[in-house]
Amino acid sequence: MNNEKNIVVHCKSCLLTNQKPHSMNETKNQSSNQKKSTLEFDEKGICSACRNIERSKKINWELREKELWKICDKYRSKDGKYDCIISGSGGKDSMFQAHILKYKFKMNPLTVTYSPILKTDMGMKNLINWVNVGGFDNYTFNPNGKVLSVLTREAFKNILHPSQPFKIGIKTYAAKMAKIFGINLVFYGEHYSDYGSSTVTDAYFPLEWLTNDDELDDIHIAGLKVKDIKKKYNFLRDQDFIPYKPLKNKDLEKMNLNILFLGWFLKWDPQEIYYYTTKNSGFTLDDYKSDGTHGRYASVDDKMEYLHFYCSYIKFGIGRCRLDASQEIRHGHITREEGINLCKKFDGEFPKRYAKDCFEFMGYSTKEALEIIDKFRPNHLWEKKKTKWIRKQEIF
Ligand SMILES: [Zn+2]
Question: Which of 114, 163, 188, 215 is 20 to 30 A from 393, alpha carbon to alpha carbon?
């Protein structure tokens, strides 16, 4: 990391910082040290996520909705086949997408689920409600847990990103299901620009993010090449990596696939979506406040997500509360001051509720896991005073 990146810049409007990396094609990700592009700021010190939400307030949403009607008219099946795919696990966003496309836009969506690493009770309940209350057909895929366990173990140790193999698998899953069912349309939810990614500037998800033409042995998962993972765990065979294999460019060329962000066409306010799905699809809130944030309705289906957010807090100084609060500030639900107070209370809380389950799944004792975590604290964000880790360059 160069020196410039070692100085934490806070957005003047929300609470995000220049340490936040953009998502990338992880199968080309060699290690945690690989340079990633990070959240951009304009000359006034406002991040691109805030600027995007500001711009979205001026969008003519009626016109955008008409565009969506046109697309649906083109793809809507006339012979009772599925005409689009929504991938999700019963989170509020996928519930919203499937419901509005089926009941307002008269599409016939197939819902598909790539199972969370360690399902929570709440997530299971919402997945059942998605199908039974919302009213959808659903295919659920459970990747081999023995394989996932070692990949998660390596991803935690090598890049402190335990959910990375899962995220690689889920990323191509909807496209693979589209291929199997001969469906040309996949919908994703919130537009990437709402998180601050400025690389996606229209309704279309860039398909090259799903592809990698390298040989399987040379593909990166968990910070290692597949051939090195196979050497280390000699029970693994090539076919064990099927769920993690990116698409080949030639496969995509044959498919005529379009992946669209529904959030490009419909205004995406997380709170409004929460109310909508509670009413229409039986979305249920967690009984407990999530460790690490004040929020209770995002990413509550996978125990590993709680650890994932904690790892991001260690590596980038951006915890789950900071992400949630920043989003709420952008949408005008809370002030920046209120967001700062929430971060003081909750950001970086240890994921105590599920940590042990996660460590056990990866085959680490708590002591071993905590030692790994501490190795990933960057010097410009953390210093150790006696036995305590102190955050540097904090906003408050
Ligand atoms: Zn911002």
Answer: 163
Distances (CA, A) of 303 to 28, 186, 309: 26, 27, 11
Instruction: Measure 195 CA to ligand 1 centroid, in angstroms.
Output: 9
* d(C-alpha 236, C-alpha 358), whole Å: 22
Q: How far is the CA of 24 from the centre of ligand 1 (A)?
A: 20
Query: How does pLDDT run across 133-190, given as a tens digit for each residue?
Result: 999 999 999 999 999 999 999 999 999 999 999 999 999 999 999 999 999 999 999 8
Mean pLDDT, rounded, for 212-228: 96
Place of tokens 């249920």: 284
CA of 326 to the centre of ligand 1 (A): 7
Q: Which fold has domain 61-265?
A: Rossmann fold (3.40.50)
Residue pair 171/210 in contact by the 8 Å Cβ criterion: yes
Taking ligand 1, which is a single-atom ion, which protein residues have CB atoms under 5 Å away? 11, 13-14, 47, 50
- Confidence band for 32, pLDDT divided at 50, 70 and 90: very low
Ligand 1 centre distance from Cα of residue 329 (Å)? 9
- Quick: pLDDT tens for 143-152: 999 999 999 9
**Boundaries of every domain in the chain:** 61-265
pTM above the 0.85 mark?
yes
